[in-house]
């Protein structure tokens, strides 16, 4: 059974489906809900400093983009493409078979000891050698065994050295130091972005998990259920699948689909109630001008060509709730404590 995957543009509908604030429904949940202390969230601080190994790995991949195939014997620093097979006591070990493997010689990145065997080999050359696996080495299902390995070199590539002239000519930086600084900043910027997303998701989950709802109104559950059902049926249509085939592929049976739908509807209904209560407590609302500006920005962020296209794929109440959730997250994150 294939797992259902959600496209980027569908994330708005799935993340904020049914999250309609009180202004749209006028329903009070005060007697049914105990809201989590959303201004007292503690999170573990993530490390966002770039490691030397991460910087080196990125630079190495960049260097390999400029590699050139050579017909000479492989030497330290080259990239070698080879095939591999192996036997143990004359029995073929299927796990050792690889039609194409890659090793950067001198780093033992493929498997310790292979570089020594590959250095000096030319394209088309074959070599057989004994290799003993450690008792705890389960990578090839050969722990503790001595196997006869056969390798055949297919290609040898020479990787240019990282020099000031290489960096200046190909990467448009004055020298190696300047390029390494750029790579370090780029990795750390990405790590900070990922950490921010992780903090927001974790904090929101803490708020959701810490909120207790004693009774879910039937009207809200039905609305959420209907919206999610509409989403799935639209997905089936967009994929050119009959509904029965869609159900079989992603949920196996109609009964399992309905069960899953009920769980998702309950989760979305809870999010609706949490957003409504926090928005009311924090006095979060928008003028028409403010809302139109935010809606335009949201359309751009999710790759829609216009607000009209955004509204064509998502109902207005869901869009407004999604925008409101982002402002609620700002309130939550402003008060987060890190340890």
Automatic annotation (TrEMBL):
Q: What class of enzyme is it?
A: isomerase
Signal peptide range equals: 1-30
Any single GO BP term: protein transport
Q: What keywords does the record list, in alphabetical order?
A: Isomerase, Rotamase, Signal
Residue ranges annotated for the Trigger factor C-terminal domain, each copy included: 176-333
Q: Which GO terms describe its molecular function?
A: peptidyl-prolyl cis-trans isomerase activity
Q: Which SUPFAM superfamilies match?
A: FKBP-like (SSF54534), Triger factor/SurA peptide-binding domain-like (SSF109998)
Catalytic activity, EC: 5.2.1.8
* Presence of the UniProt keyword Signal in the record: yes
InterPro entries noted in UniProt? PPIase_dom_sf, Trigger_fac_C, Trigger_fac_C_sf, Trigger_fact/SurA_dom_sf
Q: Pfam families per the record?
A: Trigger_C (PF05698)
Please report the name of this protein according to its UniProt entry: Trigger factor
Which organism does this record belong to?
Anaerostipes hadrus
Per the UniProt record, the lineage of the source organism begins with: Bacteria, Bacillati, Bacillota, Clostridia, Lachnospirales
The UniProt gene name for this protein comes to tig_2
């Amino acid at each position: 059974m294939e797992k259902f995957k959600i496209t980027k543009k569908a994330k708005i509908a799935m993340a904020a489906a049914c999250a309609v604030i009180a202004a749209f429904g006028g329903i009070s949940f005060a007697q049914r809900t105990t809201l989590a202390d959303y201004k007292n969230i503690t999170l573990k601080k993530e490390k966002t400093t770039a490691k030397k190994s991460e910087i080196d790995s990125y630079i190495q991949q960049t260097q390999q983009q400029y590699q050139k195939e050579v017909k000479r014997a492989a030497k330290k620093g080259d990239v070698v493409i080879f095939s591999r097979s192996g036997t143990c006591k004359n029995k073929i070990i299927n796990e050792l078979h690889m039609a194409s493997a890659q090793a950067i010689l001198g780093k033992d990145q493929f498997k310790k000891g292979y570089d020594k065997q590959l250095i000096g080999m030319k394209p088309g050359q074959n070599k057989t050698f004994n290799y003993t696996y450690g008792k705890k080495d389960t990578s090839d299902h050969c722990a503790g065994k001595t196997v006869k390995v056969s390798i055949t070199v297919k290609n040898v590539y020479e990787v240019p050295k990282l020099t000031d002239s290489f960096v200046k000519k190909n990467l448009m930086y004055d020298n190696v130091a300047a390029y390494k600084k750029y790579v370090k900043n780029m990795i750390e910027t990405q790590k900070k972005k990922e950490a921010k997303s992780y903090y927001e998701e974790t904090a929101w989950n803490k708020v959701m998990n810490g909120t207790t709802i004693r009774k879910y109104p039937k009207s809200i559950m039905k609305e959420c259920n209907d919206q999610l059902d509409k989403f799935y049926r639209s997905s089936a249509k967009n994929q050119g699948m009959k509904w029965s085939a869609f159900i079989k592929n992603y949920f196996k049976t109609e009964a399992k689909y309905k069960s899953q739908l009920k769980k998702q509807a309950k989760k979305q209904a809870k999010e609706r109630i949490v957003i409504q209560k926090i928005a009311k407590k924090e006095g979060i609302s928008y003028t028409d001008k403010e809302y139109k500006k935010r809606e335009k920005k949201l359309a751009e962020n999710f790759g829609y060509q216009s607000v009209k296209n955004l509204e064509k794929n998502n109902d207005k109440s869901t869009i407004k709730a999604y925008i409101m959730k982002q402002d609620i997250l700002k309130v939550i994150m402003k008060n987060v404590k890190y340890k």
